[in-house]
Write a structure and sequence with these properties.
This protein is an alpha+beta fold. The protein has one helix spanning 3-11; strands at residues 17-20, 32-40, 43-47. A three-stranded antiparallel sheet has the order 1-2-3. The model has no long low-confidence stretch (mean pLDDT 85).
């Protein structure tokens, strides 16, 4: 799969809750779940926690 195809495909899910699995070990091997905030070449940005209102 081309990198451009993956980025374009992921951009369809901006603002939605997603789970991203990685090929690394340890805790990151379980995946990361959050709201998809951004997708760039080689980088996925997730919002996993929102601070309390004050």
């Amino acid at each position: 799969m081309s990198e451009l195809f993956i980025v374009e495909n992921l951009m369809r899910y901006l603002g939605q809750t997603v789970t991203v699995f990685t090929t690394s070990g340890g805790l990151s091997g379980n995946g990361f779940t959050g709201v998809l905030a951004g997708v760039h070449s080689g980088c996925v940005r997730l919002i996993t926690d929102i601070g309390a209102n004050q």
